[in-house]
Specification:
It contains 4 helices and no strands. The protein is mainly α and 120 residues long. It has a single domain, classed as Four Helix Bundle (Hemerythrin (Met), subunit A), CATH 1.20.120.
């Protein structure tokens, strides 16, 4: 569970970096932070799925971790949308679309719940 908490905290930190890059209108920094957020989210998802696979009955903390993953996915999508609207950069927009499509496919594979059970 600590690994999942660390992974979720890393995503939150990198989301802050992305937000700062958008606010300061730095397309290059935004692209780098977006890629990092993407990679960290996929790593956190892998940790979550490994925890789910360990047992049939998932501890509530792990299941809620899945809900947090989904919430962070929604935040990431919102940040990507802000980056597209604030930074008129075609290369960045293409990259964000690719990253968002990848995350969208990955999030579809998890069904987080907080009722003590998580399902893959």
């Amino acid at each position: 569970m600590n690994a999942l908490n660390r992974a979720l905290a890393s995503i939150a930190g990198e989301c802050s970096e992305l937000h700062d890059a958008i606010r300061t209108r730095r397309a290059d920094r935004s692209e780098n932070a977006a890629r990092n957020v993407h990679d960290l989210w996929l790593a956190a998802r892998a940790v979550y799925l490994r925890l789910l696979a360990r047992t049939d009955l998932t501890p509530p903390g792990v299941a809620c971790g899945g809900a947090e993953l989904r919430a962070q996915y929604l935040l990431i999508c919102k940040l990507f949308g802000c980056a597209r609207s604030e930074l008129a950069n075609e290369r960045l927009n293409r990259r964000l679309a690719e990253l968002e499509a990848s995350l969208s496919s990955a999030v579809a594979a998890i069904e987080p719940t907080c009722d003590g059970r998580g399902r893959e």
